[in-house]
């Protein structure tokens, strides 16, 4: 086992970890980025073929680099995002060690941290003063424990494994979950001609465009993406809710589950349990659709107030009116009778920091941090949803968050060397 000593280790080579590296490199701080696969691999490996951003292209900003293409108000496809990130990586030379998975982070007896790193050639030890965890907020896909009791002939996969309709067996598909991924994958399957059944959860929705502009452009202008999490209306309960569903596909549009129902998609309430070929649903569909529409209209009303307050010329206000209502709440589904051959789980992810041996987590396993910095000296996080603002975890907020983390490390590094120099 080899041992390496280095001042700073960034764990994770996605856009957040590489952004911290960008600032550390400019400051001349010796560091390394340990990446379990290859830089920004998640964009290629875990997005479906027809994936598009749901935020406008002008949101795409990373240190020293911003989208400057011909369609700032459009939405890049997965492949375009990969190319854009590759262009950013060509602007600097981050010290990345690929295929280096950190399996353990613990306090080092001499101070700082000791990391156990698994590589293709064996196990290595890395000792550092600062560790920046940039592995993403929720790496483990969730499936319900009773999923294993469904008939083995039913093909099951998580949303992160979905690529396109052709990878699934012939037949209808049940998508479970209506957050951003679930709603967009249901749309993708629907547009491909598949019969789709969708178990609708509690996710809200938002208009794609309203009164002449993209809603996310309005919200940015209103300061919503810059407001610290602690000051956000509704508090912790509000920021922990699922993100609003909308799509950037074909230039961007609303995702209207009621319209899908008119076109033949079968909608249900929350999926509660199942066995063999029988699934059961709670009678929550009507309430879920009404709630999503209420949020949609509430956001439009907030934009109306902003327009009036600022005296901005804009087209007239409007409100969404439902185009379909469920006549009854279906409580069960016989997969075999309905011809459903695949179940796609899109019910989210959960955190997994079991490899970190430090008192930096709350009772639910989430990092206790302020703008990414924990009370454990030298340990910080970056790239978490709502780490500081609504923009955290998105391209729009990564630069600011990474700069804050890097600045704290740079100040600590310079202070240490200044004290050491004075002592000698």
Describe the structure concisely for a colleague:
The protein has 424 residues and is α/β, with parallel strands linked by helices. The chain contains 10 helices and 24 strands. A 5-stranded mixed sheet has the order 1-9-8-7-23, with no helix packed on it.
Give descriptors for this structure.
five-stranded mixed β-sheet; FAD/NAD(P)-binding domain; 424 residues; five-stranded parallel β-sheet; Auxin_biosynth/cation_transpt; alpha/beta; globular; 10 helices; flavin adenine dinucleotide binding; FAD-dependent oxidoreductase
Whole-number tally of structural domains: 2
Backbone shape: globular
The number of distinct β-strands equals 24
Identify the strand order in the major beta sheet.
Answer: 1-9-8-7-23
Average per-residue pLDDT, rounded, comes to 93
User: How much beta, percentage-wise?
Assistant: 15-25%
CATH architecture of the largest domain: 3-Layer(bba) Sandwich
- Which percent bin holds the helix content? 25-40%
CATH superfamily of the largest domain: FAD/NAD(P)-binding domain
What distance lies between the first and last C-alpha atoms, to the nearest angstrom? 33 Å
Organism: Mycolicibacterium diernhoferi
GO molecular function: flavin adenine dinucleotide binding; monooxygenase activity
Keywords: Oxidoreductase
Pfam families: Pyr_redox_3
């Amino acid at each position: 086992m080899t041992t390496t000593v280095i001042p700073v280790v960034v764990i994770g080579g996605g856009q957040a970890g590489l952004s911290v590296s960008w600032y550390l490199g400019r400051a001349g701080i010796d560091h390394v980025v340990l990446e379990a696969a290859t830089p920004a691999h998640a964009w290629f490996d875990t997005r479906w073929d027809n994936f598009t951003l749901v935020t406008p292209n002008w949101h795409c900003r990373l240190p020293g680099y911003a989208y400057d293409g011909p369609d700032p108000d459009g939405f890049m496809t997965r492949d375009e995002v990969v190319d854009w990130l590759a262009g950013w990586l060509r602007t600097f030379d981050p010290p990345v060690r690929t295929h280096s998975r950190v399996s353990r982070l613990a306090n080092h007896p001499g101070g700082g941290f000791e990391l156990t790193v698994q590589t293709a050639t064996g196990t290595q030890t890395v000792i550092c003063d600062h560790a920046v965890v940039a592995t993403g907020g929720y790496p483990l896909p969730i499936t319900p424990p009773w999923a294993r009791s469904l008939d083995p002939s039913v093909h099951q996969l998580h949303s992160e494994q979905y690529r396109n309709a052709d990878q699934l067996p012939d037949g209808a598909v049940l998508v479970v979950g209506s957050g951003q991924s679930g709603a967009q994958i249901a749309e993708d399957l629907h547009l491909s001609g598949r019969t789709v059944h969708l178990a609708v959860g509690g996710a809200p929705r938002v208009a794609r465009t309203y009164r002449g502009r993209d809603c996310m452009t309005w919200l940015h202008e209103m300061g919503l993406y810059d407001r610290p999490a602690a000051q956000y209306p509704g508090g912790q309960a509000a920021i922990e809710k699922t993100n609003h569903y909308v799509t950037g596909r074909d230039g961007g549009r609303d995702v209207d589950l009621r319209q899908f129902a008119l076109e033949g998609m079968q909608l249900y309430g929350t999926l509660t349990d199942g066995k063999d070929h029988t699934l059961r649903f709670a009678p929550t569909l009507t309430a879920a659709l009404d709630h999503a529409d209420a949020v949609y209209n509430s956001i439009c009303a907030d934009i109306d107030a902003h327009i009036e307050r600022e005296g901005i010329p804009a087209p007239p206000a409007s409100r969404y009116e439902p185009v379909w209502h469920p006549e009854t709440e279906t409580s069960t589904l016989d997969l075999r009778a309905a011809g459903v051959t695949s179940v796609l789980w899109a019910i989210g992810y959960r955190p997994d920091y079991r490899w970190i041996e430090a008192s930096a987590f709350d009772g639910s396993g989430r990092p206790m941090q302020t703008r990414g910095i924990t009370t454990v000296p030298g340990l910080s996080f970056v790239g978490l949803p709502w780490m500081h603002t609504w923009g955290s975890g998105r391209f729009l907020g990564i630069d600011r968050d990474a700069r804050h983390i890097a600045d704290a490390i740079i100040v600590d590094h310079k202070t240490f060397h200044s004290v050491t120099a004075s002592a000698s």
